[in-house]
Amino acid sequence: MWLRAKKVTSARELSAQEAVRVLMAFGFTGIRSRSHLVRRELAAGNEEEALRWLDEIRVIANACHNLPADLRHGSRSERERRATESLRFHLRELAPDDHEAQWVRETLDHFGFDYRYLLPENVRQRQGTPET
Questions:
Q1: Would you say which domain of life the source belongs to (predicted)?
Q2: Paired residues of 12 in beta bridges
């Protein structure tokens, strides 16, 4: 997809809070970079391509819009719990037509975040992922 940062070469355990921070950072920069592409395509008169970029912006914004609340004030364990629940929500089905969940999964995969433990059992089985 659009991920251009250096990929993590070995899977590592990130806290859910770290994963949320990664999603927010990539989401915010992704939205900003795509907005420039929308402007360029509109200036060139390519409305269809501009709409495609706008759709990607919408997917990222939908995936990220509640994430900052996961890191609001509270104890470290409270923030970790909120972040974990948020990731569980995003990864609940990983259906091919759930573009927000796919963006979250691809971003977490890119950074080597092991999120298998967050997946419901039926999704782990469908994905061929062993239980952790």
A1: Bacteria
A2: 113
What phi, psi does 65 have (nearest 5°)? -60, -25
Please, what is the Cα angle at 6 between 88 and 35, to 5 degrees? Answer: 75
- The Cα 58–Cα 103 span in angstroms is 11
The amino acid at residue 111 is F
- List, in sequence order, the alpha helices (H) in the chain: 16-43, 47-64, 67-70, 76-90, 99-110, 121-127
Q: What tokens appear for 25 in the block?
A: 């950072």
pLDDT in tens, 67-116: 999 999 889 999 999 999 999 988 886 676 789 989 999 999 998 888 88
In a 3-state reduction of DSSP, which class is residue 12?
strand
**Exposure b/e, 65-103, CB count within 10 A at least 16 = b:** eebeebbeeeeeeebbebbbebbeebbeebeeebbbbbb
